[in-house]
Amino acid sequence: MTTIGFIRHGVTEWNKEGRSQGNTDIPLNEEGLQMAEQIANRLEHEKWDVIYSSPLLRAQKTAEVIANRKQPIKLYLDNRLRETGGGQAEGTTLAERIDKWGTSWQKVDLGAESEMDVIERGMTFIEEIKTKHLGERVLVVSHGSFIRTLMSELMDDVKIKKDKVGNTSLTIVKLEEMGNHCELFNCTAHLDAY
After folding, report:
1. Catalytic site residue 120?
2. Exactly one of 37, 83, 90, 113 is catalytic; which is it?
3. In the annotation, is 45 catalytic?
4. Predicted pLDDT of residue 179
5. pLDDT tens, 15-59?
6. Residues 9, 37, 113, 190: which is the catalytic one?
7. Which bin fits 11, alpha (ψ -120 to 50), beta or left (φ > 0)?
8. Can you give the chain as a three-state secondary structure string?
């Protein structure tokens, strides 16, 4: 059994403005840095063996804050953990997308990455982690859409497919031979506790 703790990065200015980020490399804002410190406080005394992160700045910085608190834990960057590519929609708000492409903008081919491509790269990562870190506890710092898509593949739960993944939320999944078990989903209690 391998345990994975999925963490969404801290908040960015584009999050606050409601802009689609995708693979655009947006840094954390001051609030996002504070949120990274709060999740690091939460995890400081928990046992985690290794951290993997998306190389996009907002995730990488969140992971670095956590890793600095949990020395001598190793941090690895993995491009498979990047956010779902949004194509031409990246950088736009919902209102701008509707204005540009109409109310059915989601049906327009804007060059976005397909859900199947996200699942394929995500599951390739998961299978490698299950082999490489058997019996270990692995933190994975990534992005909202990526985590939700991957969780919907790992778990057969309609609620997971619909819920928005909160910034610095913690989701813990036990990957077991007889099926996966979600121990905790989308928990942001640390934002109020510290």
Report:
1. no
2. 83
3. no
4. 85
5. 999 999 999 999 999 999 999 999 999 999 999 999 999 999 999
6. 9
7. beta
8. CEEEEEEECCCEHHHHHCCCCCCCCCCECHHHHHHHHHHHHHHCCCCCCEEEECCCHHHHHHHHHHHHHCCCCEEEECHHHCCCCCHHHCCCCHHHHHHHHCCCHHHCCCCCCCHHHHHHHHHHHHHHHHHHCCCCEEEEEECHHHHHHHHHHHCCCHHHHHCCCCCCCEEEEEEECCEEEEEEEEECCHHHHC
